[in-house]
Amino acid sequence: MTEATIAKAGSRPSLLQMQGVTKVFGGDVVALRGMDLDVRLGDFISLLGPSGCGKSTALRLISGLTHPTAGRIRWDGPHGTDDLGVVFQEPTLMPWATVEDNVFLPLRLKGKRKAEVQAAIDAALALVGLDAFAGAYPRELSGGMKMRVSIARAMVTRPKLILMDEPFAALDEITRFKLNNDLLAMRQAIGCTVIFVTHSVFESVFLSDRIVIMAARPGRVIRELQVDAPYPRTEEFRTSAEYAAHCRAASDALHEAMGDAA
Amino acid sequence: MSTMTDPAVTAATDLRDDEELRRARGRRINGIARWVLPIALLALTLFWWHWVVTVNQIPHYVLPGPMLVAQTLVEDFATLAGSWWITIQVTFMALFLAVTVGVGLAILFNQSRLVEMSFFPYAVVLQVTPIIAIAPLIFIYVVDINLGLFTIDAQLVGLLICAWIVAFFPILSNTTLGLNSADHNLRDLFSIYGATRWQKLRYLQLPSALPYFLGGLRIAGGLSLIGAVVAEFVAGTGGVGSGLAFRILESSYRLQIPRMFAALFLIVLTGVAIYLAITWLTHVLLHKWHESAIKRET
Ligand SMILES: Nc1ncnc2c1ncn2[C@@H]1O[C@H](COP(=O)(O)OP(=O)(O)O)[C@@H](O)[C@H]1O
Ligand SMILES: [Mg+2]
After folding, report:
1. What is the CATH superfamily name and number for domain A40-69+160-214+222-262?
2. Does B60 fall in a domain?
3. Ligand 1 atom at minimal distance to the Cα of residue A55
4. What is the ipTM of this complex?
5. Based on the structure, what is the number of domains in chain B?
6. Are A207 and A57 in contact (CB under 8 A)?
7. Which of A35, A137, B38, B139 lies at a C-alpha separation of 20 to 30 Å from B292?
């Protein structure tokens, strides 16, 4: 596993830009209004906001599952389907397939044969610490382990960008902390860009270097915060004064967002 | 969960207290009773039947005793076996057609809304029309089908059509439901990864539909037998294909009631065997992953 170095924010090349992206459902539900976001290679961006503020909609727009009502999403440079990985709130595994076959899915859909990508599958499983469970079925795993499989599947193609929609929201706090730590380690290992949706202030501060605060009705970006603590971040960061200060700042910004939305 | 046994878990057997041992005993007794009780009840029923017939001196052309039925079954087996084989053939060919046409149509409907909207009404019409009411018409219109290598006799074609009409709808409707019930997040995932229609069908929709299909198959298995028997009643005597239903009709004309019972027994046996086979198939295909087939320890 090569340790990809993650350049300092600001000096990184751009990966994609959302320019004035607006999404309206059913003619009158403005899920997202005029969202601008410049995603740079190596960013770990959290979209933080109350439910209904358009976080999931933003991810669906970036993933190409739905198209903007107005505005546009521009990728810098060519990109194909293996440049993108997705993790949903539910593990979203195929119950009839083993852990290994679930992780194989993105490659299978590329027309790859299992034998030729076995190394990539094994590496992805090792990355999430589930090499011993390759032959298990999803029902045999705990919630946290299923989520790890889901992450392994998103990472198996070594994508440039991984979109995560509240992936740990349904897990208990102990498991969530562990997965937060491990996610950062995995990201460090494969050096991908992440856009991470959450409604937990603590999670967003711990994980990301950019926090985009959003408000609902209509869904929109309120402001962006920087968390400039260096990676790798460990449990120590979680108890530092710096972390506490960032949490307060994010929390205040969030309250402001909720306040003017009410 | 074979993958996760560790020594601490295996050692736990020795930690059972009296309460748990009592529960374990209860489970063991339950396990034995599951087999013994139905068999004992069956034996009791047969004995009671025998007793009623003997004590009341019921003549065998009204109600034969179980012994006489068994004896007839053995003595007439040469005749009955031929008919039995025909009924089995019709049943399985009809079931096979029901599965291929049912699944094929379900996939076709799933791939094209237009086709579904156009043809689904006909499927419903076929389903709601009592087979007994259209069977006579079917037998008027059928002709021999020449397949080059062999020819299917018109009567057999009629039987097949009737049994197929009865059996295919549960397969069609269940499989259609199954194909549409794939997890929507998984569907999104397939789209994001640029899956083709065929890949979506092969790797997502068909596996999702499997439990539903098997539910439909369980119903269709019984229905194809019912269809085969009912159709033969309508077709009546004559013709080459003379299945068990024909034997029953024939026996009733000749007041050979024991033989009727023997034929009936073979029909029931066939139905139960089909049911068990499909239950077994369901278990084999689903026990690793589907909720309906997973046994949990409590
Ligand atoms: N497919 C849809 N059809 C209609 N309304 C939708 C749809 N998807 C989202 N919305 C609406 O758009 C708003 C934003 O939704 P979403 O992006 O899911 O918010 P979040 O993920 O931040 O909770 C909500 O008001 C939601 O009801
Ligand atoms: Mg959401």
Report:
1. P-loop containing nucleotide triphosphate hydrolases (3.40.50.300)
2. no
3. 22
4. 0.92
5. 2
6. no
7. B38
| Structure tokens belonging to residue A162 | 């991984």
Chain B nearest-CA distance from A93, in A, is: 7
Q: Is residue B99 part of a domain?
A: yes
Same-domain pairing of B93 and B162: yes
Strand order in the sheet with A44-48: A84-87, A161-165, A193-198, A44-48, A210-215, A220-226
**Residue B216 and residue B130 share a domain:** yes
B129 and B20, same domain (yes or no): no
Domain ranges for chain A, please list them. Answer: 40-69+160-214+222-262, 93-158
Residues in chain A: 262
Arithmetic mean of pLDDT, A210-232: 92
Which of B163, B174, B270 is closest to B213 using CA atoms? B174
* Amino acid in position A183: L
**Token reading at B166:** 């009865």
- The most confident of the ranges A4-8, A115-119, B121-125, B291-295 is A115-119
Look at A86 and B189 and tell me if their CB atoms are within 8 Å.
yes
Contact B3 A140 (CB under 8 A): yes
| The residue to which tokens 């794939």 are assigned | B182
Q: Cα separation of B69 and B263, whole Å?
A: 9
Claim to verify: residue B37 and residue B84 sit in the same structural domain:
no
Give the CB-side neighbour count of residue A170, counting CA atoms within 13 A: 13
Q: From CA A63, how far away is CA A58, in angstroms rounded?
A: 9
Torsion sign (Cα): A245, A250, A251, A253: positive
